[in-house]
Amino acid sequence: MGAHLVFIDESGFLLIPTVRRTWAPRGHTPTLRHHLKREKVSLISALTVSPQRRHLGLYFRCLPEANFDAAKVADFLRHLLRQVRGSVVVIWDNGSPHKGEAVRALLRRCSRLRVEALPPYAPELNPDEAVWNQARTALANGRPHSAGELAETLARILVELGLSQSKLRWCFHQSELPPLLF
Question: Of the CATH numbers 2.60.130.10, 3.30.420.10, 3.40.50.1380, 2.40.40.10, which one belongs to the domain with range 4-12+36-174?
C-alpha cells in the first residue's frame, strides 16, 4: 500500500478586508467601511491525497493573533497523524517553522512520517496555495469585526471547502504539478 501525500502551507489573514469587483446600481459606487486594525489570524492547512488517489482531504488549524513556529507545526503534524492512517509523505516549502527542533524530534520518533521540500520560491507547485485563494475569494468584500470572528468565518469556509471533492481537485488543477489525480 502507498503513502498519503500531504501538501502543507501556512497563511495569514488580516482584518482589513479583501476588496474584489462587485455589482452596484448605476451611479452608486459601493463602499466598504472597516476599522483599520492590524489584527490577524494565522492558519495552517494540509491538503491530503489518499494512496489510491481517489479521495482528497483538508485539515487545518487557526491561530488568532499568533504565528506558526516549529512547536505549533509539530503539534499540527501530530494532529494530522491521528487523522490519517498509514504512511504519510508531507510536501511543503522550506519555511523556518518546518525546520525547528520540535519538527525534527517528531520526525525522529515517527517512522511513518516523511518530509519532502518543494524547490525554493515555487508556491505554484503547492496545491494548498489554492486553498488560500478560495478562502480569500469567499471572504471578499466582507468585514469581520474581530480576529475571533475572522477565525470563525475562515473555519466555516475551510470546512465547507473540505467537504467538496471538486473544489479540492480544483486546487490541484490550479497548481503547476503534473496531473496527480486524473
Answer: 3.30.420.10
